[in-house]
Amino acid sequence: MAETRPVATATAAKSSTSVQPKKRSNAISWVAPVVCIIAGYVIWRFLLGDPNNFTQPDPAGGFWPHHKGPKGGLVRMYEGGIIVPLLIATFLVVITFVIERLMTILKATGTGNIAEFIRKVQYHLANKNVDQAISECDRQKGSVGNVMKAGLRKYKEMISNTELDTEQKVLAIQKEVEEATALELPMLEKNLVFLSTIASVATLLGLLGTVLGMITSFAALASDGGGGAAAELSRGISEALYNTALGIGTSAIAIIMYNIFTTKIDSITYGIDESGFTLTQSFASLYK
């Protein structure tokens, strides 16, 4: 009777992956909005709404004092209404996550040029110097380097593996790269939703504040009448438009920074894809 020999598969012979989930706290995603809302109200109520900034202060106003006669142009923003602290909060949220994403993406980009880094790795692999290629990844210190390093470790392991054929080894390397990529990409895209959301919401909040201000102004015109009411109407519309200006300005910053970050992430993602292609093609050509 012929002896039946077990067929080695990539799943059976494959050792446990070297890629480990990275535990990163994202407390900023809920702490920052709350802190910014509180800070927005504090700025509106105690900085812009300082009684010294008005000719007719309302010292007993409590949560929302009705000061009159602002002494400066910026102070007029206070009279834009209760929507103003929300708009200030959205602006602070944008600034917070712009700084947070900027620090994260700069770290993920690593040092040096990504294309040059990949060329160096290709050169070392062509000379079958895997250890030197891994050293290049340590110097790169970015997401592309992290993914490439995970793939190179599996690459080095597959060189000495005698149980798998070339195709199975290439699939094992490819899977390792995919697992490393799945851990890196969420870190890059995390919290961008705040910028994309505020880009739309800030403008709507500004328009809401303007509409509320105009409703109040026209109501005063209807009840009082006369030239004094017309002057009050003009003043009210001018104050209400501060809401629109603040909303549009916040939205513009959010849109610009969101597009900058997504473009940079696309560049890193392309580098990760190219690194995976480099590893599989190199192994397939050198270790047939």
SSE arrangement:
Blueprint lengths: L9 H4 L14 H21 L5 E3 L11 E3 L12 H27 L4 H13 L3 H11 L2 H17 L6 H24 L2 H33 L1 H61 L2
Antiparallel strand pairs: 1-2
Describe the protein's architecture and organization.
This protein is mostly helical and 288 residues long. The protein has a domain at 101-286. It contains nine helices and two strands; from the N terminus they run H-H-E-E-H-H-H-H-H-H-H. It has helices at 10-13, 28-48, 83-109, 114-126, 130-140, 143-159, 166-189, 192-224, 226-286, and strands spanning 54-56, 68-70. Helix 2 (28-48) packs across helix 3 (83-109), helix 4 runs parallel beside helix 9 (226-286) and helix 7 (166-189) packs antiparallel against helix 9. It is rod-shaped, with a radius of gyration of 30 Å. 34% of the residues are buried.
Q: Main traits of this protein?
A:
disordered N terminus, single chain, 288 residues, two-stranded antiparallel ribbon, mainly alpha, 9 helices
Task: Produce a short descriptive summary.
This protein has 288 residues and is mainly alpha-helical. It has a domain at 101-286.
Distance between the termini: 33 Å
Strand fraction equals: under 5%
Structural class: mainly alpha
Q: Mean pLDDT, nearest integer?
A: 85
